[in-house]
Amino acid sequence: MGITYLDHAATTPMRAVAVEAMLPFFSERFANPSGSHRFARDARRAVDEARDEVADLLGVRPGEVVFTGCGTEADNAAIVGVGGLAVCPAAEHHAVLHPIEAHGGRVVGTDAAGHVDLDRLAAALADDVRVVSVMAVNNEVGTVTDLAAVAALIRERAPRALLHTDAVQAPSWLDLRAVAPMVDLMSLSAHKFGGPKGVGVLTVRDGVTLAPLLLGGGQERERRSGTHNVAGIVALAAALAETDTERDRETVRLAALRDRLVDALQSEIDGVVETVTRDRKVAGSAHVCLDGIESESLLFLLDEADVCASAASACASGAMEPSHVLAAMGVERSLAGGALRMSLGHTTTAADVDRAVDVITASVTRLRRAQVRR
Ligand code: PLP
Description:
- The protein is 42% helix and 13% strand.
- It is of the alpha/beta class.
- It is built from 13 helices and twelve strands.
- It has two domains: 4-11 and 247-373, Aspartate Aminotransferase, domain 1 (Alpha-Beta Complex), CATH 3.90.1150; 16-242, Aspartate Aminotransferase, domain 2, CATH 3.40.640.10.
- The radius of gyration is 21 Å and the shape is globular.
- Pyridoxal-5'-phosphate is lined by residues 70-72, 75, 93, 95, 135, 139, 166, 168-169, 189, 200, 314.
């Protein structure tokens, strides 16, 4: 029996097109694209072509694409690079939350779905705010942000502020050509859409100047020094292109599988609370809280049965800290302790869903029996 992988929000299996695109850059096309010989020009051409393709897929200009070392770097580069007072909602990923907190920024509340509370955001906006960062899709509970509403509020209350969106979880579900015009800065990470780990993108609207995080060789037009990860950049473009082509079909397919998963869990097991209603979240997200269950014990049993899921985000699941996202949503600590995040993606099948339902049902039954005996 193989692995039942329901943790696509943590990372996705690589797409074959991305692996294939990378390989020549580990062997015959290994040159440094910043060099001046023919061999270097070949690598530079590969980076330029990837940049053109990514720009086209995101609806921005090639000069607005900055390749970074990961999504975390893109988020930090946006917030620290703009400088000055930053504002974000409490349910952001730590890659946004921590730099904003570290630089004395303002963190505002969310509603019960984890969506930024627009009244509280309005109250935090003023002339001194330089950047507002609001994620496109939440990595734990899958909530989609109404970025048009956020952008309108910023125009009204803090017209000098830039809008950054962490769109790391978005490419599989949202056409980013519709997102990019609403924001000044946008972060992506290849490993969330079938590309490799350790490569990301920050789009920077023309005319926006950022103080670079990394100083050195002046790559990426002085916006991100460091020798290009040519293989990673080329694979990122290939993965994004396939994600874009498949998006509409996959959204329909995976929404049906997600519904089948959550509906079956709710009919098989008592006390399965769906954290966010399906109309507010992306198709691949199934997040529930299991009444009276400890996530840690459940995940242990799932792991033994080769079912991969998580409790909070991947970074927190090792430590089993209570989720800051669920806390921001006002989910009671006792219920949040039984959180289970199952995230579906391009490799998920109906057989995965059915097996997960069987294993989760058996595991919860076992844990509840053990509780009765205690
Ligand atoms: N932002 C969000 C919403 C994420 O889900 C992640 C991944 O965990 C990141 C940022 C960080 O991206 P990376 O793993 O490329 O540093």
